[in-house]
UniProtKB/TrEMBL annotation, chain B:
Residues annotated as transmembrane: 6-23, 30-51, 57-78, 99-123, 169-188, 218-240, 252-283, 303-322
Subcellular location: Cell membrane
Domain of life: Bacteria
Name listed for the protein in its UniProt record: Branched-chain amino acid ABC transporter permease
Keyword tRNA processing among UniProt keywords: no
Organism placement in taxonomy: Bacteria, Thermotogati, Thermotogota, Thermotogae, Petrotogales
Keywords: Cell membrane, Membrane, Transmembrane, Transmembrane helix
C-alpha cells in the first residue's frame, strides 16, 4: 500500500485530530476500565449508553432547550440510565458465573440499540440542530496555526476532555467515594465488611462512567453531526481496546491508551490513505498484538492467577 | 440399550425423511423456507455450542466464520458470466473468475476455508483468557466483515454478491444438520470430548491432569468454525444475496446464534437445536409486531425494529431469571423418553457385563 509523506502542516493537523479522537476514546475507555476494575465485567452496553446520551441531548435541543441545558440533560440522562442498567440487569447476576453477566451485557447492548431504533427511528439524524445562531460560530470557525487549519471545535473538545479528566482524577483519588471505588476494585467482600454500601458505590461508578461517555459522545456528535442507533457500537469496542492497551483496571492507563489509539489510527490513515477502509480492523490487530506482547497493558498491574 | 438406541435413531431419521419429502410436495413456499432455515440456524448454534458451551471458550466470532463460508461457496457456485456482470466497481480477480464447483464441493470448501481461518486466528487468540478472547474473536469477525467490504476485486465490496442459485432445500439443510450432529456428538463422546468438558469445568486442573489445553481448545475452535462455514454456505444459498452489512453477517448474527444457544441451554446439543427452532419460529411470529394492525377499531401503525426489541428483552429476561435455558446441560436420550411413556429398559448391571466377558474369554 502506498505510503505518503506528511508536510509540517498536515502533521500538525493530524496530530490535533488524533488528540481529539484519542480524547473521545479515552472518555469512553475510562468507563470501561472502572467497571472492569470493580466487577470484572466488560460492559458491552457502554457505547450504547453513550448513544442514548447523545439522543437525549439531541431531543432536548429539538424541544428548544439551549445548548448548555441539552448537554446537561444528555449527560445526566446517560448517568441515570447507566445506574438503572446496573440495578436492573447486572445486580441480580453479581454471584452468577461471569459469563452470564457478559452475555447479559451483550443483550443489553442490543436492547438499547433496538430501543433507539423503535423510539428515535433508524434513520441517521443531523446533530447540527443543537447549534442556533448564537453559537453557530463554534462549528464553522477554524484557526490557522503554522499553515495548518484546525477547527476551533477540535481545541474545544480537547480542553473539555482535559477538564473532565481533572475532575475524574479528583473524584477517584481525593474523595471518599473514590477511595471506596478503589477499595472495592481490590476486594469486594472486605470492603463491604468495612461498612461501605458496595451496591451504591458500584452504581455511582456506572453513573460516572456513563456520564463521561455521554459527554464524549455529545462532543463527537458536534464534530461529526450524525446520530444513529448503532453509532455507539464501534467506538464502544475501540474504547475497550484502548482500555486494554493501557492496562485494564487502571484509570491513567485508559487515558493513555485512548490517546495512543486515537493517534495511531489517525496517523495510519494519514500515512496510508489507501488503508482508510481498514481503519476499524486496525484497532483489533493492535488489541491482539498488545495482548500477546504485554497482556497487562502499558500501565496495568501484573495479574496473578490463583489456583 | 445401544442396539435399541441405534434402531430408534434410524427409525426417526427414516420417518423424518418421509415427512420432509411430504413437506416438499405439499407445503407452501413460506413454510418450506422456514423448515429449511431451522436446520441452518441449528448448525450455527450447535457449532457455537461446541466452542462456547462444551469447551467453555467464549467466542463471539461466529458470524465471521459464517461469512467466510458464505462468500467462499458463493464465489464457487456463481457462473463465470454472472461474476463478470456483477463486479461493477472493480473487475474480479482473474483466477477467481473461472473457479466453479457444484454445491456440495462449494459447501465443503466454505467449511474448510472457515476452519483454516479459525486455525490462523485461534493460534494467537486462544492463548488469551476469557473476556479478552471474547473481544478478540468479535474483532476477528469485524475484520472479516471489513475485508469483505474492502477487498472489492474478490468480494465485490459493499454491493455484495447477488443472484446465487437457490440450491438450499430441505434435504440439503437437514442432511447437513445430520452430518453435523453425527460429527459433533461423536467428538463429544470421544476421549477428546471428555477432555473438552474437563477444560470447561476447570482448565487449570485439566492442564495438571496432563491435558494439553491449548491444543484441545484449538481443535474445538477449528471444528466449530468448520461447521459454521458449512452453515454459511447453506445460508448464502438460502438468502441468494449476500453483502457485508452489519445486519447480514455482522455482530447481529452472532447475537442471534448466541440467543439460540443460551435459550436452549449452554452446553446441551439437543438444547441448541431446540433453541434454533424456537428462535426461528419466534422470529417469524414476531414479524407481525412490525406490521400495522387494527385493534378495537384503532389502527396501530407498524413499528420497525419492534421485533429486535422484544427479542433482546426476552434474552435479558432469560439471562437474569432462567440461566439454564430450556435443557440446561441435559441431553435428549431415548431412555428418558421411553421412561416418560412408562417403558423401562433393563440396563445390564456391572456384574452381568463382567460375567458375560468372563464367559466370552473362556
Amino acid at each position: 500500500m502506498e505510503v505518503s509523506a506528511l508536510s509540517g502542516a498536515t502533521f500538525l493537523q493530524n496530530l490535533f485530530n488524533g488528540l481529539m479522537f484519542g480524547g473521545l476514546y479515552a472518555l469512553l475507555a475510562v468507563g470501561y476500565t472502572m467497571v472492569y476494575g470493580i466487577l470484572r465485567l466488560i460492559n458491552f452496553a457502554h457505547g450504547d449508553i453513550m448513544m442514548m446520551g447523545v439522543y437525549f441531548a439531541f431531543y432536548a435541543s429539538l424541544m428548544g432547550s439551549p445548548l448548555w441545558l441539552s448537554i446537561i440533560i444528555g449527560v445526566s440522562g446517560a448517568a441515570i440510565l447507566g445506574f438503572l442498567i446496573d440495578r436492573i440487569a447486572y445486580k441480580p447476576l453479581r454471584n452468577a458465573p461471569r459469563i452470564s453477566a457478559l452475555i447479559t451485557a451483550i443483550g443489553m447492548s442490543f436492547f438499547l440499540e433496538s430501543v433507539a431504533v423503535v423510539v428515535f427511528g433508524a434513520v441517521p439524524k443531523s446533530f447540527t440542530s443543537v447549534f442556533n445562531d448564537n453559537n453557530k460560530w463554534i462549528m464553522d470557525k477554524t484557526w490557522n496555526i503554522l499553515d495548518a487549519r484546525i477547527p476551533v471545535m477540535t481545541f474545544l473538545i480537547f480542553f473539555v476532555t482535559a477538564i473532565i479528566f481533572l475532575i475524574l482524577f479528583w473524584i477517584v483519588y481525593r474523595t471518599k467515594i473514590g477511595m471506596a471505588m478503589r477499595a472495592i476494585s481490590s476486594d469486594i467482600p472486605t470492603t463491604s465488611l468495612m461498612g461501605i454500601n458496595v451496591d451504591m458505590v458500584i452504581g455511582f461508578t456506572f453513573a460516572l462512567g456513563s456520564a463521561m461517555a455521554a459527554a464524549g459522545g455529545i462532543m463527537w456528535a458536534m464534530r461529526y453531526p450524525n446520530v444513529f442507533p448503532y453509532m455507539g457500537f464501534m467506538p464502544g469496542l475501540k474504547a475497550f481496546i484502548a482500555a486494554v492497551l493501557g492496562g485494564i483496571g487502571s484509570i491513567p492507563g485508559a487515558v493513555v491508551g485512548g490517546f495512543l489509539l486515537g493517534l495511531l489510527e489517525i496517523f495510519l490513515v494519514a500515512l496510508m490513505p489507501g488503508a482508510a477502509g481498514y481503519r476499524d480492523a486496525f484497532a483489533f490487530i493492535i488489541l491482539i498484538v498488545i495482548l500477546l506482547i504485554k497482556p497487562d497493558g502499558l500501565l496495568g498491574k501484573k495479574s496473578v492467577v490463583k489456583v | 440399550m445401544k442396539k435399541i438406541n441405534w434402531t430408534l435413531n434410524l427409525i426417526t431419521i427414516v420417518l423424518f425423511t418421509l415427512f420432509l419429502s411430504y413437506a416438499q410436495g405439499n407445503f407452501d413456499d413460506y413454510t418450506l423456507r422456514i423448515i429449511t432455515l431451522i436446520p441452518i440456524y441449528a448448525i450455527m448454534s450447535v457449532s457455537l455450542n461446541l466452542i462456547n458451551g462444551i469447551t467453555g471458550i467464549f467466542s463471539l466470532g461466529h458470524a465471521g466464520f459464517v461469512l467466510l463460508g458464505a462468500y467462499t461457496s458463493a464465489l464457487l457456485t456463481l457462473e463465470p458470466f454472472q461474476k463478470e456482470l456483477s463486479y461493477i466497481i472493480v473487475p474480479i480477480q482473474p483466477w477467481l473468475l473461472n473457479l466453479h464447483a457444484n454445491f456440495l464441493v462449494a459447501t465443503l470448501a466454505g467449511g474448510v476455508i472457515a476452519a483454516i481461518f479459525a486455525f490462523l486466528i485461534g493460534w494467537p487468540t486462544l492463548k488469551l483468557s476469557g473476556d479478552y478472547l471474547a473481544i478478540a474473536s468479535l474483532g476477528f469477525a469485524e475484520i472479516a466483515r471489513v475485508l469483505a467490504n474492502n477487498l472489492i476485486s474478490v468480494t465485490n465490496g459493499p454491493l455484495g454478491l447477488k443472484g446465487l442459485p437457490n440450491y438450499t432445500n430441505v434435504y440439503w439443510s437437514w442432511g447437513w444438520l445430520l452430518v453435523t450432529l453425527i460429527a459433533i456428538i461423536s467428538l463429544v463422546k470421544s476421549s477428546y470430548g471428555r477432555a473438552l468438558i474437563a477444560i470447561r469445568e476447570d482448565s487449570i486442573a485439566a492442564e495438571s491432569m496432563g491435558i494439553n489445553v491449548f491444543k484441545h481448545e484449538l481443535m474445538a475452535f477449528v471444528f466449530g468454525a468448520f461447521f459454521a462455514g458449512i452453515s454459511g454456505s447453506l445460508y448464502a444459498h438460502w438468502l441468494t444475496t449476500i453483502d457485508p452489512r452489519i445486519t447480514t453477517f455482522g455482530p447481529l448474527l452472532t447475537f442471534y446464534v448466541l440467543i439460540m444457544v443460551v435459550l436452549g441451554g449452554l452446553g446441551s446439543i439437543t438444547g441448541s437445536i431446540i433453541g434454533a427452532g424456537v428462535f426461528a419460529l419466534m422470529f417469524e411470529y414476531l414479524r407481525s409486531l412490525e406490521e400495522p394492525f387494527d385493534i378495537f377499531g384503532i389502527h396501530v401503525p407498524g413499528i420497525p425494529g419492534m421485533r429486535m426489541l422484544v427479542i433482546s428483552a426476552i434474552f435479558i429476561f432469560i439471562m437474569i431469571f432462567w440461566q439454564k435455558g430450556i435443557m440446561g446441560r441435559a441431553e435428549f436420550s431415548w431412555e428418558k423418553l421411553l421412561k416418560l411413556f412408562g417403558i423401562k429398559i433393563k440396563k445390564p448391571s456391572l456384574v452381568e457385563i463382567y460375567m458375560k466377558k468372563e464367559g466370552e474369554s473362556k
